[in-house]
Every structure is written in C-alpha cells, then in structure tokens.
Amino acid sequence: MEYKSITHNRFFRFVVGRLAFTAVTAIFVAVVVFFAIRLIPGDPALLILGLDSSPEEREELRGVMGLDRPLILQFVDWGVRVLGGDLGYAYSQSRDVLDVVGPALTNTLLLGGAASLIAVVIGVVMGNLATSRSRALRRITDWFEAIFLSAPQYTVALILLIAFAVLVPVFPAGGLSSRGSDGPGALALHLALPAISLALAPGAQMARSLKTSISTLQSTELLPALEARGLSSWRLAVHSHHNALPPMITVLGIQVGGMLGGALFVEQIFSIPGLGALIVQSVNLRDYQLVQGVAFVIAIIFVLVLLAADVINALLDPRIRVGKV
Amino acid sequence: MQHTSRRSRRLLGAAAGTIVAALALVGCSAGGESAPDEQELVIGSQMASLPSLDTGAITLAGYEGQRLIGNLVYEGLTKRDVSDPDAAAGVAPALAESWEISDDGLTYTFALQEGVTFHDGTDFDADAVVYNVNRYTDENDPHYDAAVGTYYAVLAYVESVEAVDDSTVAFTLNEPFAFFLADLYNVYFASPESLDADGNEGQAKNPVGTGPFVFDELTENQSISFTRNDDYWGEAAELDRISVELIPDPAARTAALRSGRVDWIEAALPDDLASLEDAGFVSTGNPFDWEWSWQLFTDVAPFDDIRVRQAMNYAIDREAIANDLLHGTAVPAYQFFAEASLYYDEADDLYSYDPEMARSLLAEAGYADGLDITVGYITAGSGAMQAKAMNEALQSQLAEVGINVTLDPVDFSGMYAALGEGNTGWNAANQAFSLEQPSSWSWSMLCGTNYFGYCNEEFDALHAEALVTSDDAERAALLTEAGRLQTEDAGWMYVVNDTAPRAMASYVKGFEQPKSWWIDFTNVSIEE
C-alpha cells in the first residue's frame, strides 16, 4: 500500500510538471506567433480597402482594428482575451475567430485522427514485415519504408487523388461531403485519401521504431527464455510489442506535428476546410487575429498530443513515472 | 526464431482483417446515393475563403465573391450588360427600370422596377433605397459599417438621396460624375426589415436581397448554396439550386470536375483543357477586359527612357505566350486596352514581335551591352493567370535582346505592401487587373497617385474630362484617346488579355460566356 501511494504521487507530480511545461510552451508560442505574422510585409487595412483607398481611410480602419496602438499593448490585449477564451475577431470574414476556427478544428481533428489510426496500422504491419524471416519480404518492406519516408505529402496527395478519385474513381475527389451522400460512411470515404496521404510518412517512421525494438529484443535471450517457459507464440508477440510500444507512441506524438504541417498541403489539395487550409488563407489575407488564433490552436494541439504521449508512456512504463529511464 | 515469423503472420492476418472490415463498412454506407431530381449546379471556385455575406463586404473575397455570391442574392440599381456574348459589357437597368439625368449632370432620378420583393417578402421601394444608401454613407446611421461602405467609393459623390414617391428615387451629386450609373452596379440593396431585425451581424450570416437566387446555407470554409427565387421580378432562373465549393488548388478543381464532384470549374488550368475536352467536358472562354501586363516604374532608370520601354514591348512574343504556353486561353495585348474593352481601337495596336527593333532601341538608349532589371510578380490568386510560367517565358524572351530579368515572386498581400511602402527595389511590377472602371484608375495611372511613377498630364486631362462627360460616345472617345497616349508612352509592357477559361460537364446547357468578368445564370440549365 505504502509503495503504491508513492508511485501514484510520483505519477501525479509527473503530470503536473508536464502540464506546467505545456503552459510555458503555450506562452512562448503565443509570443512567437503574434510577432512573426507582423514581421511579414503587408497591411491588413490596405488589403481590405484596396489600392485605390486613401492613406487616411487606411489609417482609420487600422484604428478600428486596433493596429495603431503600441505592439506591446496589442499583445497584452490579445493575451488577456485568449485567457478569457476569446480568440478575437477575423476581419477578413467579419466573424469571430472562434466561429471560424471551431469547424476547421473539428475537420482537422477528424483528419488527424483518421491519419493517426492508419499510421498505427501501417507501423505495426510494416514493422512486423520488416522483422519477418523472409529476406524478400524484409527487402520489399524496407523499400516501401524508404518511399513512404521520402515522398513529399503534396505529391503523395496529388498522386492518390488522380489515381483513386479520377482514373479509378473509388473515392470522392475532395471535400467532406458531396451531393446525395452524407453521414459517417460518406465522411469516412471522403477522409480516406487525405488521411492516407498524411499517414504514410508517420507510419513508416513508426515501423522503423518497431523494427528496431523487435530486432533488439530478438538479439536478447528474453524471447527464447519465455518460450522455454511454455508461453504461446501469441503471448510472446504481446510481450515483445509491449516493450516496443513506448518508443512507438513517442514517435507518433512527434509525427503529429509533421501531420499538422502536412495538413497544410493535403487540406488544400482535397479542399478540406481544416486548420491547415485556414492558416494559408488567413496569412494570405494578413488577417492577424485569425492567423494568431489558428496558429495558437495548432500549437496547443501539438503540445497536448506530446503531453498525452508522455502520460500514456508513463502509464505503460513504470520506469518513466519514477524517473529512472 | 520460428516463433517470430509465426507471430508476424498472425498479426499480419489480424491487421489485414481489420482493414478489410473497415473497407467493407465504408463501402456499405456509400451505397445510399440517390440521383437528385432537382437541377443543381455545383461550381468549383478558386475562392479560398467565404467572406462576410453582407452586401459590400462580399468584395473581401474579390470579384469572384461578387460574381458567385453577391450577384446571385443581391442586385443594384444598374448592372453590367452581359446579354450579348459578342459585345463589350456596358450598363443595363436592374432594380431601376429607367433614369433621367439633369442637364447639369447633378441629379439622377431613377424609376424603380415595380412589384419587386425582397427574399423575406417585404417590398423593395424608394424607402428601401434611401435606407440602404444611408446605411453605406451616414456614419450616424445605426447600421453604418465602414468595412461594408468602403467598397462603394461611388457613393462619395452622393450629396443626398430622396424618395420622390414609392417608386421614384432622386440622387443629388456633389459634383458631376459620368460613371455614376456604371459604378452603381454593385451597390447592393438589402431588406431594411431584415437589417432592423437582425442587424449587420444577421446580414453577414443570412443575406436578404432581391436577386434571382435565395441564400440557403453556408458550410464554414467549404461551400455556400442558393435556391432559385421563385418570386423573382424578372425572368426566373432555370436552375433549382447553385452550390459553390471552395477549391483553391487548380489541379484539385480539375480532379473535382472529372470525378463528378462538381459540374463546372472556374479558372481551369490551360494545360488541362485539351484532356478535359477529350473526356467529354466542354470548355468555354471569351477574351475580356483583363490586362495582364508589367507596370514599368517610369520615374527611375532604365524605364525613365521611353526607348527602353518600347524595346520591352518589341522584344516579347505575345503570340507564343497566348497560343503555345496558355493554349489559347489568352489573347495577345498590343496596347493599353483589351479588345473586349469599350474603349479599344484597333488602330492603336502599336507593338509587334520585333527583336531587331528592340535591340536597336536599346542600343540607342545606351544599353547596347544589355541591362539588368528586377520584376516583382504575384504568384497566384485572383486573375494572376499562370504567373510563374508566363513570367519565366518573358524572362527568356527578354534575355534574347540582352535584358536580364530577375524575378521576385510575392503573394498578393506582399505586392500590396511593397507598392504601398514604395521601397520595392523593383523596376516593374506584374499584376493583372481590369480597366473596366475608369473611376478607379488613380492608383494605377494618374500623376502623383499611382504606384509606378507614371505621369502624363495630357492623359490625366482626358481622363478628368471623361469623368464629367455624360454622353456615352464622347466619353468613350476621350478614354480611347487617353489609352492611345499611354500606349505611345509604352507605360507598361502589354502582354495578354485573359479569356477566363472554364470547363463544365456536357449536361450543363445554355451558358454563353460573355466578354466580361460577370456572368448570368438565368439561362443555364442541367439536362441529363
């Protein structure tokens, strides 16, 4: 009992520590995002009013948008509002940032979730194939792994789109719904190609991690020892995958960042109205509050996913939660 | 080692089983598609985001927004006349049936169409006109919003507006302005009752106008749809429904058309048209008033020398760009005005492809050994056409006569920022725009106010006179003359005019593309 309560306590402290780190990261991201978008040349008022507007008109609109105030005040203003759950006003769309970001966030989470699932399947399947006894199978898997890892998501997305939506029209050519097809089934169909485009590289990365863990394990005496004790091959597989899981989860967590970046292109190509597509538009329109809102949300997702990966790993691996790695 | 492979095979089997099950699940649920009986046209648009739907603010999505959203839901007193696909688009009556202009050019009296109702069932009348104009211009109006009114520069000329009777409204101008009728075309009228009830916020989300289509539904960042207005005062549309999908990527638009996700795509990729036609799709295009040019910075070397500017215009092979590179989706521009412009005169086609002439002009100007220039261009977006490929082709053509071009790609906002701040480091800027609205030429042409250092006092005088000349023919002649001066000055390097290439399924009938950016959906139908 005594021992258990200590570990629980340690686990609790671990999570609190990681949460504090997450908050610091969020503040850092907010600062970078706020100032970075203002470093790109471009005047939001000029974009809204057009080149034939007078400097006075633009100055007036900048006043309305609060852009004439000192930067540091603008930042404090924004920070206070974000803390209150208000991401500001998207002037390019005359809507609250939250109203624009909300639906986009849902779509990106759907896409990211589907991609993560597919990536895990790819990772497990390829990781096992890459450590199988057949030399040919291992070769071929390594091949695919190299292709998946090096193919740019933009190209993969275009190839999949042309191959499976145009030449062999199995899947719809983009969007999240089409005429006469609605509901979760249609959604799954629409998400398939973009999710696969996003999942290939992270899947291959996870396969690599699984391959390393399994072959490391294969070089030890653990598996023969377990087999000698009469464990079935299924139980052996469970043991070896349990050992391989923490690094795979860490890889997945990190890869989510890459997926969010890749979503930028994939969402454009498959015209999925998600965060990636939204940030491209809002940067083009120099809609500062919208850019800040979207970038901040993306960063928070990334940080939360990393946190979740750490927590899951801590639950899986007692060494992590007691800090003895 | 045997256990490993047994384990792998099992796992593989399990994984494969999961995938098959998932696919079967997906396949089942996709079976429920039913062919809709209604005529719905789905358009794949290059718009990247949906604007506020409140009248003037729709222009935030560019002219695409006006074409595919604003003009469906709302109407102005006048409109662009796109009824004749072979003529340049002039002015036609819309919510105003007719008008009278006082001799001093200061009073415009409009007789309004009778029997027009807004989509909420309320009447469109003189009071509604006054209500809307006050909303756009009067800062004390409860519904005033600078972000909406700012697009209606024409209203700055309005001193007062008055309802004479239910169906007559009189505008008094503060100075004569000959483009008043032309520029009113996009000053939209929204239902006063809907504004009173739901304010600007309501209008931004649920626009209520008088147009041939009624706003139905908006899916954030994805699509917007409209249904036919069965109570439309004019000729009702044939289509039951129009949906506009946002597909900013051109290759994705082509794929969407091929797969049947959309029936019609805007701004089709020139390279895709031939294969689309082979696959049974129909492409349309018609040259319109869209000038794709390099605006030369004429106040600094080397383009302060007219000979260098002329040399540029002789050095390029416009036909190769229009016909080979763009597969006929553009027409060569040999002067300031496009052939589809109201102000075009064939006699002013001054420049031809003559590299010899270009070389000798350069030598005369002291650049026999060549010169280096930097050109900023907008990579993509509204009307930029195939900017990268076109500019690279021009770069290699100009290199032939010794002009070495460094290209500096920027995005739309970057171009605006660079021009606005005036420290571009460029010798020319490439952006495409229309000259159809001469009242807005100050930033592109007039002395002291344009961004390119161009100044021709005579041009300005002709332009100023045109602004107050109410006779259509006289006004056109003045602008033609002004354009001739600009062409003689070689103020720009004139390259091509766009034809607005579109592609659509063969069952889309009744569309004749006008010589205009604006289109009319009234006669478009779907016959399968």
UniProtKB/TrEMBL annotation, chain B:
Q: Name one Pfam family in it.
A: SBP_bac_5
GO MF annotation terms: peptide transmembrane transporter activity
> Which GO biological process categories is it annotated with?
peptide transport
* Organism domain of life: Bacteria
Q: Does the keyword Glycoprotein apply?
A: no
Q: Which residues form the signal peptide?
A: 1-24
InterPro entries given in the database record: Peptide/Ni-bd, SBP_5, SBP_5_dom
Q: Which Gene3D superfamilies match?
A: Dipeptide-binding Protein, Domain 1, Dipeptide-binding Protein, Domain 3, Periplasmic binding protein-like II
Q: Solute-binding protein family domain location, by residue?
A: 91-450
Q: Name one GO cellular component term.
A: periplasmic space
- Tell whether S-adenosyl-L-methionine is among the UniProt keywords: no
Key words of the record: Signal
Cross-referenced PANTHER family, in alphabetical order?
ABC TRANSPORTER SUBSTRATE-BINDING PROTEIN, PERIPLASMIC BINDING COMPONENT OF ABC TRANSPORTER
Name under which the protein is recorded: ABC transporter substrate-binding protein
What is the organism field in this record? Answer: Labedella populi
